[in-house]
Write a structure and sequence with these properties.
- By secondary structure, this protein is an all-alpha fold.
- Helix 2 packs across helix 15 and helix 13 packs across helix 14.
């Protein structure tokens, strides 16, 4: 506890992530490895983890890949740069997940395509050559829809661009509609030559399995409450979005992630992802907003205190929730005293 107090007073965490450098990346990777190993230890009740190394390594690589991809795409936009604080937001958010990420091809591919979708959405909304951007955005959404038809709601984003910038030619409309018809035709053609196991993953029927609240664990409730609080923060910032953000691209990215976050909550509550952890799709927007929240705190001391409190708080909660720590162990059994 004395060491923790020193960390808080010295603003050590903030200083490491205030500027991006080798020490920042090393600390971020250390936190990612800790978060993944800690989660696996809890789920396996301290059992031998060597047999789980493919899943452990896969989770680590997946988080690093998400951060690297988001960072690379963010710097492509003028005036946009993913701050160092985001490098600690993702491993911290991972600790909040009710369970470790299942390394299923379809949900991982959906997440990657949605990350690409954010980049294309921002680029299309703020570039002169919007026909190509519209085509790319519609292409990405059309591919995701073939994996899960409930993602068709994301077609509202290119429609938003239409309303924002206006439809000036038939090329704009053609760029939007062409992938909508071509991609399903292409996937149907590929189904002839693909293995039956792969074909079963293409355009599966939508099955609604509403979340049973009485079956939710304490970790599920913590994650759901964190998501709802994120939505509340978004709702308060959106009406004044253009005034609060330095660059229009920032607000556009914020808008896209807000849409993704709200969709992911509905997606999880209705159980629209079959056979995988239903909160997986909400991981990236939740981490994105947690990083943005930390970034907006001006005081380094307050930011350091908040991050340390959240990080230690979720670690202690998980230890108590899994029965590894208890009040009796922490303060001693009253009978013995």
């Amino acid at each position: 506890f004395n060491y923790i107090a020193k960390v808080i007073k010295s603003d050590m965490i903030v200083k490491i992530f205030k500027t991006i450098g080798p020490r920042t990346y090393f600390t971020s990777i250390f936190l990612i490895v800790f978060a993944v190993l800690f989660s696996f230890v809890l789920e396996n009740k301290g059992a031998f983890l060597l047999e789980q190394w493919p899943s452990i390594l896969g989770n680590i690589i997946l988080i690093v890949a998400f951060i690297a991809m988001l960072t690379f795409l963010e710097i492509q936009h003028k005036g946009r740069k993913l701050g160092g604080v985001h490098l600690i937001a993702y491993p911290t958010t991972f600790l909040f997940l009710p369970s470790v990420l299942e390394l299923k091809t379809i949900p991982v591919l959906e997440a990657i395509l949605l990350i690409l979708g954010q980049y294309v959405f921002i680029k299309t909304l703020h570039s002169k050559n919007k026909e190509k951007g519209m085509l790319d955005l519609s292409l990405i959404i059309s591919i995701i829809v073939q994996l899960n038809a409930s993602f068709a709601i994301f077609y509202l984003l290119p429609l938003l661009i239409f309303f924002n910038r206006g439809i000036k030619s038939a090329k704009d409309l053609l760029a939007l509609l062409l992938p909508v018809f071509i991609i399903p035709f292409t996937f149907n053609g590929l189904s002839v030559i693909l293995p039956s196991e792969t074909v079963a993953l293409i355009n599966p029927p939508i099955q609604v399995n509403p979340l049973k609240y009485h079956l939710l664990s304490s970790s599920d409730w913590v994650w759901l409450i964190a998501l709802l609080l994120s939505v509340l923060v978004c709702a308060l910032q959106l009406p004044r979005g253009h005034k609060k953000f330095s660059y229009p691209e920032y607000f556009s990215g914020f808008l896209y992630m807000t849409f993704w976050l709200i969709f992911s909550i509905v997606f999880g509550l209705l159980g629209l992802q079959i056979g995988v952890e239903f909160w997986l799709i909400s991981f990236i927007p939740a981490a994105y907003f947690f990083g943005g929240f930390l970034e907006k705190i001006k005081s380094d001391s307050l930011r350091n205190i908040l991050f340390t409190s959240v990080f230690l708080g979720i670690v202690l909660f998980k230890l108590f929730d899994h029965g590894i720590m208890s009040l009796e162990l922490l303060f001693g059994n009253g009978e013995n005293s």
